[in-house]
Amino acid sequence: MRWLHISNLHYSASDNGIIAKELHSNFLEYLNIHIKKPIDNLFITGNFRFDGEPPDENETAENAVEFIWEIAKNVGIYDSGKIHIVPGNEESCGNNEIPEEILEEYMVNEEKFSDGTLPEEYKVILAEQFSFFKKINRSLYKGNSVWSDSLLPLHTYRCFDDYNLLYLNTAITHGRNKIECDKENQRGRLIVGTSILNDTLAKINHENPNTPIIVLAHHPLRLFNEKDREHAEKLFLDYNVILYLCSDTHEAKCKRIGKHIEITMGCHRNNGDTQEAFCEGEIAGDKIIDLRAHLWNIKQKHLEEYESFEKPLDKEHPDTAIICINFANIYTVQRKYESALEYYNKALKIREKTLGEEHHDTVETYNCIAINYGMQGDNENAIKYFDKVLKIQERILGEEHIEIAMTYSNIASVYRNKRKYDSAIEYYDKALKVKEKILGKEHIDTASTYNNLAMVHKSKGNYISALEYYNKALRIQERILGVEHTDTALTCNNIAVVYKNQRNFESAREYYEKALLIYRKILGDEHPNTAIVRSNIAKIRRMASLTN
Q1: The CATH homologous superfamily of the domain defined by 318-547
Q2: How far apart are the C-alpha atoms of 19 and 312, rounded to whole Å?
Q3: pTM > 0.85
């Protein structure tokens, strides 16, 4: 089955703009010349009218449908049953009357809405707002649409011999009350009702089992609220979803999410930083065997094949490893370290096979895995992978390279966490020698190693050595960062702690007060750091008075 995917027609009955008219005219001519293989289905993923056009404008709806038919006929489609549409943001009237607190409760009340269920009365209200989409639907299909006239259920489907189509209305809570009208505020908060989604997928599986599913939607998954996105991604893994076609973000992108490929397309109206793009592709069974995008060149005013468009990747392609790394980094930020480790290992397996163990990208993956283990408190595995990194770096880069200094520091940090302070000092010293030789003794990165050595010596109770290294770091920070910098304040605070441990309360108070002056000026009196230092000064005064 071969398809053509377009989105965001943004048709305006009153003013379609010179660039938009040029694009529409060139688009039809381009389709006629360059789309050489027969197209079986035309997919349009929302936004048939231009933002701000009155939703009850009948002329806009008729003109948009007329343009849809021009597109269809240029690729050999004369049957409305081969044209497939879903609503976008601009198809609703934006008067969603569901109280905001109900929708907020949906996202946070796991007990009440744990299965993603929306109350029936609210489904009706949600569907009623899509007055403009209903006009498009009636005009295009003449009563023979997969969508009911009420647009209920909120999501629907069609089964064919070799594939299934799932039509999602992802715009049901976009513009969800009259006050909160900022679209960007609602990105990442969209609700789709995963109970309805689950029921629809179950029906597809019952009617046409073991057949791939293509999802049509206006919004990419990342714009769903977190709970709905996670549920949808799991459902797509459980069922045979292979392709998710969407738009909204006005950019041409392709990426793998789990087992399916998500493709976002641009729009058909130039609006600043938008990409005017469409794509064509073909599936055979559950495989995507062809995919290409076409982009409007605004300078030369013509369409051309988009050579930089990322295509679905082989599971062992080096770029697939990059996608795995990106997933792992996201999970790391979310502190989901086990999930991150799973994707780092997937990337590692690909890179070891395609690039070899000593390639820079493979070594970097070993490094990411080591850091991940360190974050989980698995110090043994952290050391194991850092040692692997170090051996390769020493063999490839030599012993005096800045990347090796970073690995020495990473190993030292793990030993510090294990409270093996002598080993930590050994590796921080190695890092320091490399940095002093390559960067110099007055470099800010060298100062960070002075700070690290000072912290370890402080932990060992070697206060004289700790002060020596803290003062070296402080001198560099004051010269490079300035006297009034938060890093400078932190080092002053650390010096104060050492003096406090030595029971040198006068010097401790002196450095706490230096830190306080900086924090008050940079962060303000109400900042937690300022409050902590102020409290420490009060404690020092009490300790000094008790001593006297």
Answers
A1: Tetratricopeptide repeat domain (1.25.40.10)
A2: 31
A3: no
